[in-house]
Amino acid sequence: MLGDLIGEEQGRTTVQRVVSGAHGLPPTVETSFVASGTLLGVAVNDMGTYSGRLRADGTLEGVGQGVLMSPTGAHATWKGQGVGRFTETGGTSWRGSIVYESDSAEFAGLRGVAGVFEWEVDEAGKSSGKLWAWK
Fold first, then answer.
1. Label partner for 89 (CA 20 to 30 A): which of 20, 102, 122, 135?
2. Integer CA distances (angstroms), 66 to 26, 111, 133, in order
3. What is the pTM (predicted TM-score) of this model?
4. Which among 43, 64, 36 has a CA at the least distance from the CA of 127?
């Protein structure tokens, strides 16, 4: 069951590159981004990189990782995976799961919690996302 909304971010793509696919797989697009928002009510700056691969059915498969920090120096790392699709306007829309690791007191509420996210990226690289606790 989805729990409470625990985070929201807005950001932008900083760089993209195409990486050759291995073992006959199609190439992947590696995307790095920066974002800011809140997580558990704490202001955060987030940066991460994810790779998306076009699947035979036209959907996208993605995996990513990143690090975030609060203004007080509290920090957490994250890893996520999800599925996406292209939007009619040339952006991408993602749904997936994410887990965090942190020894910072401000992010203690993330310990042992899986999150589910919605992440939208427009054709210009502007992004926004929401995160819910999965209980």
1. 20
2. 24, 16, 18
3. 0.92
4. 36
DSSP states of 89-129: TS-EEEEEEEEEE---GGGGGGTT-EEEEEEEE-TTSEEEE
Angle 63-105-128 (CA atoms, 0-180°, nearest 5)? Answer: 40
Q: For the segment 52-63, what is each residue's pLDDT rounded down to a tens digit?
A: 999 999 999 999
Burial of 80 (0-12, 13-18, 19+ CB in 10 A): buried
Query: Residue ranges per domain, the chain?
Result: 2-134
Confidence of residue 135 (pLDDT cuts 50, 70, 90): confident
